[in-house]
Amino acid sequence: MKVTIKWIDGVSFVGESETGHAVVLDGAPENGGRNIGMRPMEMLLIGMGACTSFDVVAILKKARQPIIDCVAEIDAARADEIPKVFTTIHVHFVVTGDNLNPTQVERAVKLSAEKYCSASIMLSKSVEITHSFEIKPLSVAAT
């Protein structure tokens, strides 16, 4: 896998993947940024969240669970001192669908965290990552 990071100016960059997708990254104004893109550490969390969400949805679909929606809400804390690494990350899944089996949802979250999500597993080597989930029936989610 290859990516290219091109400096724009100040602390603004464009990252481009080998698949041709691009994203703007920038720093906070107090650090010389113009606030025109995500912060790199935000992007790291989003990447991890997308990776684990991909797994959870795929596992639930393979288990023939009637999943309609999946949202990963991620809350992370960072060290106060430089390097301001993540110290804790909590991933809370909100999975929507009528008649979802809680055991299957729990299994999907656990398999992603322990076996399939490369990003989570890599980060878990240095960060405490916890997971939780809730199930919203479709009838409740629509109101």
UniProtKB/TrEMBL annotation:
InterPro entries: KH_dom-like_a/b, OsmC/Ohr_fam, OsmC/Ohrsf. Pfam families: OsmC (PF02566). It comes from the Bacteria. NCBIfam families: PRK10738.1. This is OsmC family protein. It comes from Methylotenera mobilis (strain JLW8 / ATCC BAA-1282 / DSM 17540).
